Amino acid sequence: MSGESSGGSETSPEMRNISDSNSTANDDVLLSVRDLKTHYEERSLFGGDPVRAVDGVSFDVRRGETLGLVGESGCGKTTLGRTLVRLEEATDGNIVIDGDDITTLSGDALQRWRRDAQIVFQDPESSLNDRLTVGEIIREPLNVHNWKTPAERRQRVRNLLERVGLREEHYYRYPHQFSGGQRQRVGIARALAVEPDFVVLDEPVSALDVSVQAQILNLLMDLQEELDLTYLFIAHDLSVVRHICDRVAVMYLGKIMEFGPTEQLFQKPENPYTRSLLSAVPTPDPTVERDRTTLRGTPPSPRDPPNGCVFSTRCPAKIRPDGFEELSEHDWDAIEVFREVLRERSRTDPSLSERARELLGLETRLPDVEEAAGELFASRSFPSDVQEPIQQSIEAANDGNEEHAREIITAALGSVCDREAPSLLATGRTDSGRSSRCHRHKEEYADPDASRSDSPQS
Amino acid sequence: MSRHARDDNVPLNADATSSRDLALEVENLRTVFHTEHEQIHAVDGISFNIRRGETVGLVGESGSGKSVTARSILGLIESPGEIDPASAIRFEGDNITEYTESEYESIRGDGIAMVFQDPLSTLNPVYTVGNQIKEALSLHQDLRGTAATERAIELLEEVGIPDAARRVTEYPHQFSGGMRQRAVIAMALACAPEVLICDEPTTALDVTIQAQIIDLLMDIQAERDLSILFITHDMGVIAEVADRVNVMYAGEIVESAPVEPLFAEPKHPYTRGLLRSIPSTQTSGDRLETIKGEVPTPNEPASSCRFAPRCTKSFEECSEVAPTPTAVGDDPDHDAACLLYPESMTTDEAVAHHRPADDGGEQ
Lengths: 458, 363
Known about the structure:
The complex is a heterodimer. Chain A is an alpha/beta fold. Chain A has two domains: 13-280, Rossmann fold (3-Layer(aba) Sandwich); 320-347 and 368-414, no CATH class. Chain A has 16 helices and twelve strands. In chain A, the strands form two sheets. Chain A has an eight-stranded mixed beta sheet, with helices on both faces. Chain B is of the alpha/beta class. Chain B contains 13 helices and 13 strands. Chain B has helices at 3-8, 66-73, 101-107, 119-122, 129-140, 145-158, 164-167, 177-190, 207-224, 235-241, 259-264, 269-276, 347-354, and strands spanning 22-34, 39-51, 55-59, 81-83, 88-91, 94-95, 112-115, 195-199, 227-232, 244-249, 252-258, 326-327, 335-336. In chain B, the strands form two sheets. Chain B has an eight-stranded mixed beta sheet, sandwiched between helices. In chain B, a hairpin with a 7-residue loop joins β12 and β13. In chain B, α8 (177-190) runs parallel beside α9 (207-224). Chain B: It is an enzyme of class 7 (translocase). Chain B: GO terms for molecular function: ABC-type nickel transporter activity; ATP binding; ATP hydrolysis activity.
């Protein structure tokens, strides 16, 4: 909200990471996140793959800025926010502030970080204890951190109430007597009680009506200016992010797909995912002509992310292997959907009764994949170098070997997007501070149509 | 739609659509909830209609009465709630508010179907998705056995679920959020309804999935000539899907218009405020315009403008006279309930225009 960031000498976070691993050179950096991973292990009998909620992210948070973190549900943005304030334990990587690594803090140092970093939660209904008065709720962090004398604490709470737009007499009321907007004000007052430097705002307005949402956003902007706060603003509502954030990180399936100054990123998104995401936002203007790229399907499971680019299963700009240029969009789409079907099938766990049937030697097969294939490929005719691998793959799937079926297709029709994970590359002007994770940024794969879909939002 | 035509009960002017083109007509609907201390007028005298093949939007903040309107249409209001006997909801020539429960059952699903916000609360977790669609098919289309299974698979394919033959055997928890909402839409379509009420069908979904569901609903509408009542709080979604829009505030419709004039020239101060508080309509970094205060609970009959305490344009009479829908703007279908209108009158004349005729101007 302080307009465009002033730094201007930034390269992409990963490149910074290479050139200057301590990032002490830039003293306006509050917090450096490097290759951070937070995985959730399965605690069941069979173990299973961990959920890769945050899977290797790197970025800097500058002092006094509002850094936006956007993405769809399940992309890991909330886990990332919670990891930064040590509500979740990182699996790997570091979060460095003033030379200390937050992921390894303990004792007094940890206590200090838990005072300096606060969080405002999404749901004001569930994040306030209904049995405490509003005054007690806001006072709790002061008690925990043993802040000054009880009388001073009470006074501080009264000041905070007023500061967030409530009244002193609200001290003795209970949360249920307040509306959603007022409860979120209480949540903000609680976060600010111990004078933090850094506040994670986890979807602070998404549970609120639009007119109330505007009040809370204004309050947050005022408080930041007054108290020199640094915000990490997590949201799925892109118009809110555009309004309030200086820089934005776009996440998908545990990875940062694109990073850059807000206005530039919204006006000229570089990454195919950011482009699709922005074009999906409905504009409150019925006369706007819609040039939407509706994404197919849903994000894959973070237990089993794709081998190559995490977005490759839905990407509208996915690179085709050489020699298949003449295939139509629709034909190619049908193949991608078929791959998705195989993917879904290979992920289905057999139920207990299915396991039992298997033990007894009874029929357990899923309905034949042929039916799904028939539906998808009806009225399409493919050249033989496409038709053959599809046929082989259908046969493999019918034999119950979905994994093999997927391998056949990937080997014959997969491209660099399926095999190789792209790294975060600097894009835009050299000193723009923008980066994006996509193979299309390499010259050999440059998308001839990329300019067409520029600036879906103006 | 035009108030005058309704008052006279005779379609005098040309724009009064003949009732055959109307899929649903809501007239002076009042739904009251009786609690121990007070009566909540959740829906307080609203009138609107839906033409065949049209999407009508109902937009408002939480507590404005949108969902109660939907439940009233479907006959789902239970004690302590009650629909005022003077209300009328006309569907296929009948006033369905007079229906008995069993008569209602004959139109629920078949005539008017509903898609709710949360697909998980619509789907039963202990039955497969296929079984739930088949239940609807056997109830409404008298299909059973293999025929029903095949139809269920067709319906899932129609709503864009790949590998439907396998999906039909799965349980709701095995579906993603967007897939579940598709399955719910498939269930609604199983009954071949005339009118589909969508109550915040995309609110719980991510924006890319929301786009898929909106595309799907629009496709289905074009294919089946469905009439849709689309309820949401999201002005962006409304701008995209609706042909005509009704803006609700505290149980009343404060403005109604075709979608383009509503967004181009909102007339009611509430609609204006609502549009201005959307961040994307303002320059980034600036303070957002807000509407001060919060939505009130309508706990007594309207004797004044319910928006007046929050309105920047309010004047003395706003707290004395309840405004009635009045034609505003160039479009004949554009009405707003506000004492500022009609613009051609002086304030005194306008107030007199809104004052109920029978109490002689005394209040």
